[in-house]
Amino acid sequence: MVRHLRRQVRDIKDTLGSSNPMAGSASENGTTSAQTAAMSLRELWLKKLECEAVLTLLEKMEIVRAAPAQFDRLIQPPSPCRIGAAVVTLSKAFSIAFQSNVAHVQALQNISSQITDRQHRADQIIWESLLDVIYLRTGNGVPLPPDPKKKKKPDTVVVKSGASVTSESHNNGMKNPFITKHRLTLAHTGKDDDDDDDSMVSWFSQEKDDAEKTGQSLFAKMVIPTSMLDAELDLVADEQRCLEESLIVGEMNRDSSIWDEDKHDRHLPRYVDHVLALRILVECLAQLGRLDDVQRTLNESLHQEIRKVAQKEQAKTFGRLEKHNKSRRRADALSNFRRHLTGLLSSFGCVMIRLSHLAQILRHRISTDQSLNLPSYQDKSTAMRPVLVAAHDLIQKEIKEFLQACLIEEDDEEQEEQNRRGKKGRSKISNELNDTRGLFSLGITEGLHKRDPLSLQPESRAKQMQQSAAKFVTNVLMVKTNTAPQYRHALEFRRSVAVWTVENDLLQKQLCVATGEDMTSPSFKTQEEEGAITFLDDVIKKQLIPVLQHDAIDGTTLALEREDAFDPVIDRTLYGRPNSNEPQDVDMCIACQALYHSTGALFLALHRLPKDEKMYLHLVGVLEHAILTFISRVKPRVNQLCSNKMALRLLLETSKEGKEKAFTSIVERRKAYAQLLNAYADGDLLESAEAGDAETGMISLAPSTSDAKARNGNNGDKNSDNNLDLVGGVEKEEQIFAMEMEHLKIVLEFSKSGQSQSIVCCSDEELMKASCLGHSLLKLSSLLDSRLKVRANSTGTFEKTLTSTRALREAIKTIKAHGFKMAKFCRIDMLMQTAIRLQKICKSSTIVAKDAVRIPSCVNDLGEYLTGASDNLREAGGNAVTAYTFSSLEQYIPLLLMQTVRVIAKGEGIVTKSPLTLNGVEALDRSGSVLYRDLKGATSFDNSYWDDELAAISFERSASFMAMMEVEIEELEAYFRENHQEFSDSDFALMFNMDGPRRKGDIGRYHLLKRKMRLN
Q1: DSSP-derived 3-state class of residue 844
Q2: Which of 145, 450, 457, 712 is most buried, judged by most C-beta within 10 A?
Q3: What is the pLDDT of residue 156?
Q4: Any idea what DSSP says for residue 589?
């Protein structure tokens, strides 16, 4: 146009210049020439304006004429559907066609009708594309992590199907908590993600603490940043870029289609970024003047589209079940229910996010453009609120319908009728298969028989999509997984539904803050449908908790009333295993098993229910009541086993110097006791996985800030891991051993008449029951304590404790205290058993035998007893309690042998009737070797607390002490000179004073030797 005008001006100048010579030759006609020139310029200028008007009109007519063809070219295949550019073209042509200077043109009347038809077609494409974006049929791309080996080109976006770019982008700070790992729920990639167990792990199924540990916040910003909305949108350029990204996605998934299966017959735009797609479509509607119809159009299709989202999840779940049936892969019965619910919540959450983003974009668009006159949106900050409310109600209804079908138990008659029909249908199918089997089938139907009989029924994904949520659960999930509706399933679903509800509420609050909507307005609180979380809580409170309470109390009480409630559960296959020394997970007694299993659901409920609800505190009270009932029966059992036993007297013995000098406190300083504590420190050390805990996994819950530090840490237990001494050492064990001997003087007085009769010990059966009770109580307390704690996902260890459970934890500590008491009782009783048998050596005739060396019968009896007791105790109480029962015997047996030597050296025992012989001394020495061998054999099982170094030192000391009885007086003096610190002065004085096989006692030589060595 500029060139054309310049050319016209140049032509006018040339025309004026050619007329100047004629004006110079006729000077008398100057006035006439000037008037003629002026008239020529006016005519030329008017001619120019007329030409420009004609050219402009022609250009407008050309735009209007070419608009239909250009519109068709932009939206028709094979090129991507560029509805944004098509709307720009159409809007420009439409505005020209109805101008006053163009509307009267007869040639454009037919074209104007074509433009109107194209406008209707554009409306249809825009509305369908908008529904595709909102209901997850497009806009599902996610960015791939950058490849360090490849240099990324500037201004290029590499994406893959699975989720929205903006919902996972770290540049704009937006997060989508409803997106599952590796995929978006309805993005069809052509690949089955069911092989990956983590594919269904959704962000909304995690708790706040877990989110913070992974660097993500539960309360991340879900709305669109204002900077993105304020950025200028170029319909043509931005849409072209988004469509180019879609082409990249198509190239990466060339072997499969990422788009919705039922949309192949329509050529609609396919976007990657749903936020950009929504902005493009809203701008298209604004240019076409259809923003006023957004709310009405979405409301009309809302119910149908929400049902389609659920139907797609039903089809995917049905396909997954079919695949698992063909592969015969066994899984948890409720895993398919949880995965289906996770898919529903993920899909519905993403729909609500996109609806909220659309509302935010629409509110921003109509508030920033003052020229828009939209009577439907009187209050611009509440635009699309009715749509959000209606979508929320429909989604809640769908979720509740699924939950109700999974939870509401049927009557017994209905269940029997359903089972009868199911068996009849299966038998009919089986009969049909049998008719085609056998000799005359010729293998023709052989392939048919390999199929599951249920797969013969005419079921397909298309038919399953048409079923309601309740019918899908009843006819597909229940049948395929062979499960029945139970109220207990509510605990499996509550956590996901609760966190999903919190995220949805947070999304709406963020939308109100971002758009300036008043959250106190009636339109914000017009939800009519009861929430799914409220429905679940009502089921738990009214239906489930009474059942769980009944099971916990009655199950525990019935087990406690049995005669064999605390008896060991004997495993008769102990010696039938390849290696009987391997540590076995010995079962707890019946009462402990009943308490553990009957309260399992209640402990699980503690992790699932909100901590500020009354039913949570009610559950804690029920658990406390069940445990206290159990403790009330444990105390009489402990008293029954320990009554009148010497071990109990020693445990209850106190010291005038304080609790630290009491016998039970001294015993706890042993390395063996620390090892016992460590063995029962956590339930995970005893059981690889409990069925209930493996299904759910303990969720991470934050402890109360008002709770004491000790309660959240080691609970103030003096026996916590920080105070355990797992190092030990010979010197420290010797010191503790000396402190123990101050309380065991009664055991060492062999010579007193009737002393051994005053020591009352357990029978073999009583000792087995005591060890079983100790093991069961320790294991039970550890398992119950681990149920009150939560597992850290990163380390797999228990770190925190549930709040408001102090009384419950104290009751569990009481169980643990009784368990340790029984373990100490078994250890001391084993010591008493050993002392009683070794007391008989000093009275054995083998000490004074002259003809041969014979081992005293009591020594052999003790060896047999230790071997048999080891097997019996390991079978009844496990390796840990057995190892603790036999701990420190490598010190006490040499001590008892030395005490026997002291009795003989004093002239008491059998030597009062006959003198000591060399054969007797040899018999004592061999007795030490035999007992060392028998004791080591009895403690040779895995995880034993046997101390080789301590045993070698102790038995060597006892052998040296016995050897002093047979040496001559000169050799004894020489030994004293070199080793006068090895034994006490009283022991050396006793040896110098006794009459041995090779010497005559002379105490004077001992005193003289001490004066020479200046030891006085």
Answers
A1: coil
A2: 712
A3: 34
A4: P
CA quadruple 86, 88, 93, 98: dihedral positive or negative? positive
How far is 544 from 830, CA to CA, in rounded Å? 48
182-186, 550-554, 992-996: the lowest-pLDDT one: 182-186
Alpha-helix residue ranges (DSSP H) falling in 185-293? 208-213, 226-230, 235-252, 274-288
Q: Are strands 159-161 and 789-791 parallel, antiparallel or unpaired?
A: unpaired
Q: Say how many CA atoms lie within 13 Å of 415 toward its Cβ.
A: 11
pLDDT at 40 over 60: yes
How many alpha carbons lie under 13 Å from residue 412 in its C-beta half-sphere? 0
Helical (H) or strand (E) element with 555: helix 545-560
Q: CA 288, 291, 297: angle at the middle one, nearest 5?
A: 110
Q: Is 181 exposed, middle or buried (0-12, 13-18, 19+ CB in 10 A)?
A: middle
Looking at per-residue confidence, does 451 or 411 come out higher?
411
User: Is 191 in contact with 298 (CB distance < 8 Å)?
Assistant: no
The dihedral region occupied by 80, where left means phi > 0, alpha psi between -120 and 50, and beta the remainder, is: beta
Closest CA to 271 of 84, 71, 121, 511: 84
**Strand-pair category, 789-791 with 798-801:** antiparallel
Quote the radius of gyration of the chain (alpha carbons, Å). Answer: 46
Q: How many CB atoms are located within 10 Å of the residue 328 CB?
A: 7
Q: Are the CB atoms for 485 and 406 separated by under 8 Å?
A: yes
**3-state class (DSSP) for residue 699:** coil
Least confident span in 111-120, 157-166, 657-666: 157-166
Q: So what's the pLDDT on residue 305? A: 93
What CA–CA distance (Å, rounded) separates 457 from 212?
48
Question: Do the Cβ atoms of 985 and 926 come closer than 8 Å?
Answer: no
Token duo for residue 441: 């089938």
Q: Which residue has the higher pLDDT, 892 or 381?
A: 892
First to last CA, the chain: 131
What are the backbone dihedrals phi and psi of residue 836, each rounded to the nearest 5 degrees, phi first? -60, -40
Phi, psi of 160 (to 5 degrees): -135, 160
Amino acid at 460: S
Count Cα neighbours of 24 within 13 Å in the Cβ-side half-sphere. Answer: 5
> Cβ atoms within 10 A of the Cβ of 182, count?
17
Least confident of 546-560, 715-729, 972-986, 990-1004: 715-729
Q: How confident is the model at residue 68 (pLDDT cuts 50, 70, 90)?
A: confident
**399 token code pair:** 């979720």
Q: Is the pTM of this model over 0.85?
A: no
Secondary structure class of 143 (helix, strand, coil): strand
C-beta separation of 479 from 337 below 8 A: no
For residues 160 and 141, what is the distance between their CA atoms, to the nearest angstrom?
5
The amino acid at 770: A
* pLDDT at site 458: 43
Residue 145 pLDDT grade (very low, low, confident, very high; cuts 50, 70, 90): very low
Query: What is the reported pLDDT for 244?
Result: 66
Rounded Cα–Cα distance for residues 286 and 367 (Å): 13
Tell me which amino acid residue 171 is.
N
CB-based contact 307:135 (threshold 8 Å): no
| Residues found in the chain | 1016
